[in-house]
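Per reviewer request, we include the raw input and output of the structure prediction for the construct analysed in the revised manuscript.
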Amino acid sequence: MLNEEHVMYHMDIKPEDKVVDIGCGNFPFSRADVLVDSNLKDNSERDNMPIPADGRELVEANAEDLSCFKDKQFNISIASHILEHVKDPIKACNELMRISKQGYIETPTILFEFLYGVMFKPKPYHNWTISSDGNKLIFKKNDMAKRFGQLFNRANVPDQNLFSQIACNNIDMLYNRFFWKDRFEVQIGTD
C-alpha cells in the first residue's frame, strides 16, 4: 500500500505545493490539501470506515470526471489503488494529467491479482490488471479467476509470518508505483 515516505522523497513535495488525493478512501495521503472520493457518505468501499474529517477540503467526484477542477489546478495528484476500479481508465488518466502537473499512481500488479485478486461473482473486484512500461500505463480487462482461494489472503497477516515479510520486502512485485511529470501514455491492451 501507499508508502508516504517513498512518495514524499520521490516527488519532492514543497510546502507551497497544492496536492490532491483522488480516491482518498479512509487513509488519505497526509500531505494532500484536497481529498476526492466518489462517494463521501457510503463507507462500504472503505471497510465501513469514514474519510477522516480533519478540516481538509472534501470533494465528491469520480476519477473519470474531475470537471470540478481547473486545468493544472494542482502541482501534484495522488491516485493510490483507484485506477483498477474505474470503468474508463483513459478518461481517468486524462483527467489526472489535466488537473495536475505531476503525480503518483499506485495499483496492484498482475502478480498481485493472480495471488490475491478478490472475486465478487460474477466479476472480479478490480476491473483492470495494470502494468507499466517506461512512461506508459497498460490496462487489460481483468479476467483472472482467483487461483488460490483465500490461501494467500489468510497467510498474509502483517508482521506475523514469513510470507508477509517476503511480500513487504518485495513490494515492487505486488504494486506498480508510477511517478509521472507533465504527461504519460495510456494503453488498453488486448491480450
